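Explain this one:

_____
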Amino acid sequence: MQTVLIDTFTVPEESKAAFLAETRKIQAFLETLPGFVESFVYEKTAGENRINVVTTAVWENDAAMESAKKATTAQFQKTGINPQQIMKELKVEAGRAVYRRTPY
């Protein structure tokens, strides 16, 4: 059963371009990891809620996702990327949840 990490973001309009650029860098790294299936960035085009960007990363299973978390943390330390600091500077609010993905 696939495991899906879904992050939701409220991104100020003036920060959106910088935020999406950072997001795409992270996604490019994730795509190199074992067990990666696919990822997407969704930008809201209509609707009432404050969340205006959603990202998804699909992994073959829980073990692949856990390995990816460790690899991503190590990559951030190696490259000096601090996601929490970036989000603070860009005034981004985030939420995160993990889901199981199965066909209907």
Q: What stands out?
A: The domain at 2-10+21-101 is CATH 3.30.70.100 (Alpha-Beta Plaits).
